[in-house]
Amino acid sequence: MTRIAIDAMGGDYAPYEVIAGAVWAAQDYGVGLELVGNQDRIEQVLEQISKEGFLSECGKAGRKRRVRVNVKSLDIKITHASEVIEMGEAPGQAIRKKKKSSIVLAVNSVATGSSDALVAAGSTGAAMAASLFGLGRIHGIDRPAIAVTLPTMKKPIVVIDAGANSNCTPEMLRQFAIMGQTFSKNVLGIENPRVGVLNIGEEAGKGNELAQHTYKLLEEEQDKFNFVGNIEGREIFLNLCDVVVCDGFVGNVALKITEGTSSMLFRMLKEQFKSDLLGMIIGLLAKPFMKRIYTKINYEEFGGALLLGIKGITVISHGRSKAYAIKNAVRVAKEAVVNGVNRQIAESVV
Amino acid sequence: MTRIAIDAMGGDYAPYEVIAGAVWAAQDYGVGLELVGNQDRIEQVLEQISKEGFLSECGKAGRKRRVRVNVKSLDIKITHASEVIEMGEAPGQAIRKKKKSSIVLAVNSVATGSSDALVAAGSTGAAMAASLFGLGRIHGIDRPAIAVTLPTMKKPIVVIDAGANSNCTPEMLRQFAIMGQTFSKNVLGIENPRVGVLNIGEEAGKGNELAQHTYKLLEEEQDKFNFVGNIEGREIFLNLCDVVVCDGFVGNVALKITEGTSSMLFRMLKEQFKSDLLGMIIGLLAKPFMKRIYTKINYEEFGGALLLGIKGITVISHGRSKAYAIKNAVRVAKEAVVNGVNRQIAESVV
To answer: For residues A14-32, b (16+ Cβ closer than 10 Å) or e, as one string?
Structure first.
């Protein structure tokens, strides 16, 4: 049985929502769990959920339902961790200093083979640093990167890096391109994925130094990349490419702006419908249609993003993840155990 | 009478749509024009519009109406320019080499007082370089920057820089903060505007080196800035601050992702409504509500963004501007002549 290690203390709604999502996934997807964190609190939460279940919005904002989980029937290991790495701490220092933190011990459990993959919703920097040092990086990859899939009108597009590395070099982005195209091909099933550089204009000379140099690097290796040039922010959603590379700062801003824009638009629409009685009726009728779109783009459905470039599987979840998002993150982790994308990256780098 | 110089050759739909938008604005807002570009082509377009008007979507995608303009009644000067700066050219070189290009001559007409402000939809880099050299920069400001206002649930937020400078220093971002808060106060009427740094986490140590150092600079000057710390991409739309500073690369990506996300969502909703007959009826009923939101967020309504930090008024329009967007850009230029934001920046920098 596949076992997923969970940093039970990481995330804005930890440990309650994280544990709730994990046991929910364990029940629905048939995986074992290793919950890493304060043992007393984990046991308390498990007991509470065992008794009364928990409320979840299930990705549908505003409508909660009670989820029942037969906790006793699940295969759950608890690993006590006496420390927690907080959001403000410098990741590198923190993982060296706090060797008994939940994230470091959760990575250890993957490193020793006790678990097969890790889900972490706490500090992204700490999860990356712990994975880098605990699992090691793939030969030929300097820095791991986060790959997220964004919904578009047609096929999903991979954005890499979505937040692991704030300061990048062109060579790092070239490696992101390799990882991104392996992910696109092997996980999303896209043949010969087209690679683009996120930029602020079409022409080769546009953008900052990083984008300009990355353009040159990718252009030189026509045999390695199906390179389609620069992609502007607006074009991401038009399926002009399958993989877009950028530094983790820009990628994270892009990702969160996408989230922010869509949730604002849905709220604006809702408010607009509430402006009069007729609007309220039309709004009610339109709701199921809007919900289908919302489900398509809601980050909670995606659950988490894979950290690519390490010798192991780490799924990074949104800090704001509630149970439903964590559940989906565990699904992503389970799928990654099966498709072994990091193994394939190791092969394609050689 | 206020006269607006127009780079008639700049933009994806120049000269036709640019001239159409300019004469439309001249008629509706009572301004004079100085159309700068190939004289023959300008005269041709004016004659055509004079005879048959032009078709415009008026910011409502898919529904065109014919706009009639009494061209002969307008105060239009034509200034012949024998050259055009193309999108791919390096801006600095291009404006030095092509002294008879439409953008250089249009800036000249503002510099000499022949016109009061400039609207440009061509290469942003060329418009900035030409304005910088032709009009001069405000003392205390190293680099001009583009300020855009993004719609949010409540008050609009100013994002600066939205694309003028791809490579920035912390000191440049500090100056953007000064310009942004002057704009927010004097143009948008927001008292004591809150300033934030666009970043990928809340804490002071987050983000790339630029964001970290800018944070420190702004924090040190509590008397000068109403500094509220880091703002994440998602939070831009939550009105946690009034001015958000970032380098022009990130700002431009952010702006275009916002556009891309909203236009994708509207298209997804439209498609969803088309899935069955009931949906089509509900979609028809919902249309006016959706249109109100669309109008609120459509970049064509905003028309153009002011280039701040120069001794004069340059409005940068979207490269994809059609007549309606250009018309609104001329309105922005006219308003800027009245409110004189760059004069106020000069005062607040001292």
So the answer is: bbbbbbbbbbbbbbebebb
* DSSP secondary structure letter of residue B13: T
A205, B90: Cβ pair inside 8 Å?
Answer: yes
Tokens of A159: 């954005």
Q: Kindly report the average pLDDT of chain A as a whole number.
A: 92
Distance CA B319, CA B325 (A): 10
Other Cβ atoms less than 10 A from the Cβ of A201: the count is 20
Q: In A, which residues are within 8 Å of B208 by CB distance? A: 166-167, 247, 249
Nearest to A207 among B166, B235, B273 (CB): B166
pLDDT band at A71 (very low <50, low <70, confident <90, very high): very high
Coil, strand or helix at B239: coil
Q: What are B160's two structure tokens?
A: 């600066």
C-alpha span between B27 and A326 (Å, rounded): 58
H-type helices in A166-247, by residue range?
Answer: 170-186, 209-220
Angle (nearest 5°) at CA B17 between B13 and B23 = 155
Cβ of residue B241 closer than 8 Å to a chain A Cβ: no
Residue whose C-alpha is closest to residue A270's, from A256, A262, A260, A280: A280
Interchain proximity B272–A254, CB inside 8 Å: no
Evaluate whether B247 touches A209 at the Cβ level (below 8 Å): no
Chain-chain contact of B261 with A263 (C-beta, under 8 angstroms)? no
CA distance B102 to B107: 9
Nearest one of B308, B325, B326, B338 to B7, comparing CA atoms: B326
Instruction: Give the Cα separation of A170 and A218 in Å (integer).
Output: 9
Distance, CA of A4 to CA of B66 (rounded, Å): 63
Enter the ipTM: 0.87
pLDDT band at A13; cut points 50, 70, 90: very high
Characterize the bridge pairing of strands B226-232 and B157-160: unpaired
Tell me: cis bond preceding A170? Omega within 30 of 0 counts: no
Mean of the pLDDT values across residues A152-171?
92
SS3 content of chain A, % helix, strand, coil (to 5): 50, 20, 30
Question: Nearest residue of A to residue B209 by CA position?
Answer: A167
pTM listed for this prediction = 0.89
Nearest in space to A337 (alpha carbons), one of A20, A7, A32, A8: A32
Helix axes B16-29, B323-339, angle to 10 degrees: 50
Q: CA end-to-end span of chain B, whole Å?
A: 31
Count CB neighbours of B176 within 10 A.
34
Distances in Å between the alpha carbon of A303 and those of A16, A49, A127, A183, A271?
A: 17, 21, 16, 17, 28
CA angle centred on A283, ends A277 and A287, rounded to 5°: 155
Quick one: three-class SS letters along A44-98?
A: HHHHHHHHHCEEECCCCCCCCEEECCCHHHCCEEEEECCECCCCCCCHHHHHHHC
Cα–Cα dist B164/B156, whole Å: 21
Most A CBs within 10 Å, among B161, B249, B285, B316, to test the A interface: B249
pLDDT along chain B (350 residues), means of 10: 96 96 97 97 97 83 84 97 91 94 97 97 93 94 93 88 94 97 92 96 89 96 94 91 97 93 88 87 86 77 88 93 94 91 85
- Distance between A264 CA and the closest CA of chain B, angstroms: 7
Residue in B155, B212, B236, B237 to test binding to A, most A beta-carbons within 10 Å: B237
Cβ-defined contact of B205 to A88 (cutoff 8 Å): yes
Distance in angstroms (rounded) separating the CA atoms of residues B211 and A89? 17
Number of neighbours of residue A154 by Cβ within 10 angstroms: 9
- Work out the minimum CA distance from B215 to partner chain A, whole angstroms: 15
